Amino acid sequence: MQTSTGPAQRGLRHLLTALCSTMPTTSSSSRLDECVSARGQTAKGSEPLRDAASLAIRPALNVRHPCPVAAHSDKLLRAVQEGLVGPLRPLGFRATGSGSARGETVECTNGSVLITLSADWLEGELKVTVTRPGQPAVPLDALIKLQGKAIRLNRLPRSVSIGTLESMMRKIAAALLEQSPQLLANVNGSTRDADRVDHNRERSYDSAFPVLGHVYLEGSWVLRLDPANRAVAFTLETVLTQAHVRYHPPRPGEQYCYERAVLTLSSLSPVAYQLSGAMPHHDPSGIDDFGNIDTFRECGSNVWELTGDWGLLTIVNPLVSLTLEEPTI
What we know:
Elements: H1 7-22, H2 28-40, H3 50-61, H4 75-88, E1 94-99, E2 103-109, E3 114-120, E4 125-131, E5 138-139, H5 162-179, H6 205-208, E6 215-227, E7 231-240, E8 257-266, E9 272-275, E10 281-282, E11 288-289, E12 295-300, E13 303-308, E14 311-316, E15 319-324
Antiparallel strand pairs: 1-2, 2-3, 3-4, 4-5, 6-7, 7-8, 8-15, 9-14, 10-11, 12-13, 13-14
Helix pairs in contact: 1-2, 1-3, 2-3, 4-5
């Protein structure tokens, strides 16, 4: 018996379609199966119920996933505090900053020098500038050589870790201390009372370092220079003044009281060298020397500069020792 598609059948079909599109959601697969079952009950030659099935699937295709970047980020600030401020803390540096989903900006300053770090997490870029009083901001790569330092300021992954950023900050601090120590000097003094310096007058090396209180370096002869990454040693014919415990009248043919000694300066930061490469002077006595320590002066808060015919070096917050040879009997 052939069944015709009458008003009753069409009404039943529309009812099933409405129930399918409005029934409570259990799972995408069960809902789709029920819709397909409803479609299977249509009479031969009738229009398939594509609209109902499409509407059942379409909401799942339009789900918007949240952005993977956190709404607030302080990982750059934390990395700067550990990796950059840590090595520069003897120079009075402190860091402040704020972040957002887009990026983060951190300012690191000692009251005189301002280091600004701006991160764009979405673009994967980190911009670093240095500003001195009364001068425009200068990009970091215009002040120091980044090549070969493994410092990567662009193409950063959005999920870059704090550990990676902290390692980069340590490399930036080391490069600044090595290549531009004078740039970091705080002309206003450190923010800590213990480190404050009166920059209206220049401290002399004998007042800053008690061990040098009764020596005259400008007249002492440099016999040997041993440079290292974080220390330097001078072998000297050292001039002792009359107040020194080892003072004695000048020997025949000598102008001052000379004693052989080793002057050592060490630091937690790398020492910056500009050695001249000059050949030693030949003395008639048979002892070769590289001239004197012509200057030993403070050129910033706890930043000291030494010069002579042998060259120039800059050292931060040095620990100074002077070891005299034992007198011969």
